[in-house]
Write a structure and sequence with these properties.
The structure is a homodimer of 108-residue chains.
Chain A lengths: L5 H10 L3 E2 H11 L8 H13 L3 E7 L5 E7 L1 H26 L7
Antiparallel strand pairs in A: 1-3, 2-3
The first copy, chain A, binds a DNA duplex (30 and 30 nucleotides) through helix 2, helix 3 and strand 3.
DNA sequence: CTTGACGCCTCGTTATACAAGGTATAACAA
DNA sequence: TTGTTATACCTTGTATAACGAGGCGTCAAG
């Protein structure tokens, strides 16, 4: 479960340039070294959510083979949001690690 | 929002020894260097959840001033779970960081 | 005698990840 | 021709979870 962090990694993946939903799934599988294998039922609604929030915008396009694709790109607002979310993640992950590591067993 | 990681840090906090709900909130505020200030409406249900899952167990106790407290302690199952969750967190945070950091801007 | 800290609790709202299912096209094999 | 697979999009429903808001009771300090 990525609860709450899915949006971040989607935005981050788009920082590398416009992409479409199906391709993002592969991108993230590759970027995460196989850790994330996101189902479509997770990704597509998330993209719609992000577009509704104006963090990304879409346009129809076509693959070399002629298949239709909805290409997504970061908006300016999305870039700003991504920057914030990256430092949020940095602080958050540090805090969690502190909590997890600080826990020395009870000195019985 | 700690989505999904709350249980982990609660279990981790209990690795240091038995504690009660209200105290855990302060522990985690301290451990996280102020980052986590968990509302009671978040912590108590989580503790009940963990107890239901037999990862922790509780008993009534009293503070030095005589106030009643429900003390929680890790079960053996809880220790095992915590170990797993710590490596889960390790892998997860690494994967997220990979996704966030790998994203180089589009070479326009 | 009221305020605030301690300490526990529950209920309702909201967000969201995901499974399950559906559509359509291209390429390739039987 | 007729699957079957990979590409590519979508929606609906369900389960979970964090948390705000509220309530209960005790004790100490003003």
């Amino acid at each position: 479960m990525l609860k709450g962090h899915l949006d971040n990694i989607l935005l981050a993946a788009l920082r590398a340039g416009p992409a479409h939903g199906y391709g993002l799934i592969e991108d993230l599988r590759r970027r995460s070294e196989g850790h994330f294998d996101l189902p479509e039922g997770t990704v597509y609604p998330a993209l719609h959510r992000l577009e509704l929030a104006r963090l990304i915008e879409s346009s129809w396009s076509h693959s070399p083979e002629g298949r239709r694709r909805r290409m997504y790109a970061l908006t300016r607002k999305g870039v700003t949001a991504l920057d914030e979310r990256q430092s949020d993640w940095s602080r958050f992950s540090k805090a969690v690690s502190l909590c997890l590591d600080d826990a020395e067993p009870c000195p019985s």
